[in-house]
Every structure is written in C-alpha cells, then in structure tokens.
Specification:
With 512 residues, the chain is of the alpha+beta class. The protein folds into 3 domains: 270 residues, 2-Layer Sandwich (BirA Bifunctional Protein, domain 2), CATH 3.30.930.10; 110 residues, Herpes Virus-1, CATH 3.30.40; 110 residues, Rossmann fold. The chain contains 18 helices and 23 strands. The strands form 7 sheets. It has a 7-stranded mixed sheet. Strand 7 and strand 8 form a beta hairpin. Helix 2 packs across helix 13, helix 5 runs parallel beside helix 8 and helix 7 runs antiparallel to helix 8. The chain is globular and about 80 Å long. It starts with a helix and ends with a helix. The model has no long low-confidence stretch (mean pLDDT 92). Its main location: cytoplasm. It is an enzyme of class 6 (ligase). Keywords: Aminoacyl-tRNA synthetase, ATP-binding, Coiled coil, Cytoplasm, Ligase, Nucleotide-binding, Protein biosynthesis. It catalyses: tRNA(Gly) + glycine + ATP = glycyl-tRNA(Gly) + AMP + diphosphate.
Length: 512
C-alpha cells in the first residue's frame, strides 16, 4: 500500500512539474480540494471528453448531446429529492479532529478483508501452479469462506442501517468492527450525523430580495427537464439517449486524494430513455458497453472490476459501479443505474406538466424508464494518469519517467525537433511542423541535447518525436522515434502524416 501512496505523490508532483494539474490559487497557498488544469492537463482532459462524446453521440444514431445551465429552478432539486435526501453520514474522530464518511470507513474495512482473501488465493496459486483451480479454492477454503462470510455480515448490517437511516446503528457497526481513525489510531468517535452536500447561493442583486438557488450537484436533472424539448425537436423515438458533459458541485465532507474527490468536478453522463419493462435489458447492455469502452484504452484489464451497490439510491432499482484500481485502491470510476421512471414522474408532479412519450408501436402514452451511465471526468483523468505513469530503468542503467498515455489522448501527438539550431534545420523543421499541425497537435522543441528532449517528450506522453538532421536537407527523410519502444526509423517526410495517423486516429480506438 505504501508503494501505491508513493505513486500518488509521484503523480501529483509530475502533474505540477509538467503543466497537467496545479493547486488552485497556488500563489495564495491553494484552496482545499480545488485544482486547476494546466496547459497539458487541459489537452488531456479535452481528449478524454472527445473520446466519450464521439463514442456516445457520434457512434450512436439514437443518442444526442445537450449542454444545460448550471443554475436551475430551485423546485428542480425539491422534485429530484436532493433538498431532503442528498446527505452523507459523517463522523468525526475526537482525537485527530478529522472528519470521515461513516459508510466509506466501513467499506474500507471490508476492502481490507477482501485483500486478505486475495492474499490467500495468491499464496495457493503459487503453491499449486498450473493445477490451481481458483473457483474451487474460493468455494472450499475455510479461511476464504470465513472472511467472505464476515464481508457479507458487514454488508447486510450496513445496508439495513443506511436504508433505515439508523445513524446510531451505523456508529455501533463502526465500534463493533473496531475501526480506528487512520490519523490518530484511536476509536474515539462522535455520533454519526447527516450532512447535505448541496451548495446554495442567491439569485438576484440584493440579498434578502433574492431567492435561494443551488449549484447543481449533478448534471442529470438538466437532461430530465429537457426530455420533451429534445424528444420533440429531434423527433426522437424510444429507446434514445441524451448525453451531457458539465460541471457539478458538492460540498463534500472529505474532499481529498488529489483530483479524485473535489467540490467542483466534471461529469460525463448519458440518460437512456426506454419502455417500462425493458430497463433491465438496457441496464445490462450499458454495463457491458461501458466496461468495454474503458478497456479499449488498453490501460490493462487488471485495473477494472464491477461492484453492485449495497444500498440503492431512492430512485434506483439496480445500480453497479465500474471500479478502477487507483493509487488509493479500488474506487468508483463510473456508475450505471436503472433510475426507473422516478425522475420524470417527480418533475411531472412538481411542474404540473406532462412528461410522457406516445409510443406509436404500442399506441399508448407512458412515462419512460431511464438507464443512466455517469463517469467522473476528473476521476477518468486520474485513472489514465496513474495507469500510464512509469519510472523505467533502461538497459544502459539510466532512468526515464514516461507517460504511456493512449496515443489518442496524448496532449501532443508529435514533437518536431531540429538536430541543431543552424544550417537551415530549424527552418526545415518549422516547415514540417506547419504542415502537420493541420491534422495533429504538435510541439516544436529545439532546446537541449536530443537525449534530453526525448526524455522531456516521454514525460509528457508524446507518442512520436521527429528529428530533422542534415540528411533531411539532402533526401527529405527524417528520423521518427516511438515513445513506447524508443525505436527510431528513417521515413520520408511525405509518409509522416500516414504513419502518425495510424497510431493516433480516433477510428482505431472507436472501432474496438
């Protein structure tokens, strides 16, 4: 675990040094849990958005995108249940004065037991080698079964207490499990209390005359209130989806772990409207489709696992998370939820407007059911960074920091470098740069030795470097170097575009 914590520190430091992520208001010593994306971070973030938008909207004829306002009529949040029910159970440790989410403390305790099971499996796997049957071992080994039973008991108690809003029961569970504060190591806990996560502000120029409104805590409601606008103006037939990328705001109890949990964050959400009764079919479809989307990036299947929810939200009849193995362990990256017809029915009731769809095939009106996919953009950014960042020891004994980013997501696709700053090489390099920049985001780099320049491009994840030398002036060929293999080959300038495109084109990724 210590190794993983070091990895997070290395990523934070690397992100700042190379212009990916800065602490917000850095010259004023920062503001807790807020970050600014730098020049390279903005590029990487935009490329992640593009990948999501292209695969969700461009590749699906029955999904369209919108961009709804952050401010919404305050009754929206009454209808959605956020005013009354958007709470997290919080608990304080009296010795460290640190605040925690009570449910997260319990989940982290269960994760430790899961790790014990995994160690048992790993040990047996080494012992029995090829003869090892993991499924049979998990089903029969007494230690594994005992720990699995412990997890089940904790899950059952946690579900019951949270569903009944039994805060005393949540505290008793924490005490029974002898959970200690990670900072003080003590079990000196306060009572568990509910904490509403919405930021409120005032609309109007004079406080007092203003009406209280909220910064949206999710982007989904902007889609629901526009359901009919989109359906009618776009002549959409069910099943169809509405996608959106946008900022959301939550007054998190515990906002830490770099950009994993922030008070201002960005979501990529799609609400898919279906016939009542078809929702589980589409829920399973989107569960599989979203996992495939993540795995297509090639970061490694070992980073992903699926986790069905213990406690369902008030609007859901099924919910599952795609979890990613972050430097802090497995945590939620994307949620897939079957939201039933809760949201549209609530907005019907509170607005007095009908939010129904006439289905010509069934010859009837109904309120559609909804399947939601919701991925945190900032979490996706951290997932990509943490899986791509490596400190490699090379054959010659030297080291390099490299970001093996999926080529389509890399901030720069190619760096153009003249070998020296004289003899007409910078002019030739600039000519190549000006031609390639119509198709790719390029960087020009002429400072320092070639080796140092290669290391710098490796550290920011640039897939290709093109070196312009004296031979280029004679025969119009250049040396192109691959970030991952570090192999160099001589190619004609006229072939450069096709070679780079082969690696970085969206087509390759979207067709997986």
């Amino acid at each position: 675990m210590e190794q993983k914590e070091d990895l997070l520190k290395d990523i934070i430091s690397h992100a700042k040094e190379y212009g990916f992520v800065f602490p917000s208001s850095d010259i004023y010593d920062g503001l807790a849990a807020t970050y600014d994306y730098g020049q390279l971070g903005s590029e990487l973030k935009n490329n992640i958005k593009q990948y999501w938008w292209k695969s969700m909207v461009q590749m699906n004829e029955n999904i369209v995108g919108i961009d709804a306002a952050i401010f919404m009529h305050p009754t929206t949040w009454k209808a959605s249940g956020h005013v009354d029910a958007f709470n997290d159970p919080l608990i304080d440790n009296k010795d460290s004065k640190k605040r925690y989410r009570a449910d997260v403390l319990i989940e982290e305790h269960m994760e430790k037991i899961r790790q014990k099971i995994n160690k048992e499996v790993e040990k047996a796997s080494k012992k029995f080698a090829e003869a090892f049957d993991e499924a049979q071992f998990r089903a029969t080994n007494p230690n594994v079964l005992r720990n699995a039973e412990k997890i089940k008991e904790i899950e059952d108690r946690m579900r019951t207490t949270l569903e009944n809003n039994d805060l005393e029961g949540v505290k008793t569970l924490i005490e029974d499990l002898e959970i200690v504060c990670p900072i003080s190591g003590s079990r000196n806990w306060t009572e568990v209390r509910q904490f509403n996560l919405m930021f409120s502000t005032e609309l109007g120029s004079v406080a007092g005359d203003a009406s209280t409104i909220y910064l949206r805590p999710e982007t989904a409601q902007g889609i629901f209130v526009n359901f009919l606008n989109v359906q009618k103006s776009g002549r959409m037939k069910i099943p169809f989806g509405i996608a959106q990328i946008g900022k959301a705001f939550r007054n998190e109890i515990v906002a830490r772990q770099f950009i994993f949990r922030m008070r201002e964050f960005e979501q990529m959400e799609m609400q898919f409207f279906v016939r009542p009764g078809d929702e589980m079919k589409w829920y399973n479809h989107w569960k599989a489709a979203r996992l495939a989307w993540h795995k297509a990036l090639g970061l490694g299947d070992k980073y992903y696992r699926e986790h069905d929810h213990i406690k369902l939200a008030h609007y859901a009849n099924a919910a599952s998370d795609i979890e990613f193995d972050f430097p802090m362990g497995f945590k939620e990256l994307e949620g897939i939820h079957s939201r039933t017809d809760f949201d549209l029915k609530q907005h019907e009731q509170f607005s007095g407007k009908k939010l129904q769809y006439f289905d010509p095939e069934l010859n009837q009106n109904y309120v559609p059911y909804v399947v939601e996919t919701s991925v945190g953009l900032d979490r996706m950014f951290l997932a990509v960074m943490s899986a791509s960042f490596k400190n490699e020891k090379l054959e010659d004994g030297s080291e390099r920091a490299v970001l093996s980013l999926p080529a389509q997501l890399a901030p720069y696709k190619v760096a153009i470098m003249p070998l020296t700053k004289k003899d007409g090489l910078p002019e030739k390099a600039t000519e190549i740069l000006n031609d390639l920049r119509f198709d790719f985001n390029c960087q020009y780099d002429e400072k320092d030795s070639p080796g140092k320049r290669y290391r710098r491009q490796d550290a920011i994840g640039t897939p290709y470097c093109v070196m312009v030398d004296h031979q280029t002036l004679e025969d119009n060929t250049v040396t192109i170097r691959d970030r991952d293999t570090m192999l160099q080959e001589r190619v004609a300038i006229s072939e450069l575009r096709a070679k780079i495109d082969e690696k970085v084109s969206w087509r390759n990724l979207l067709s997986k």
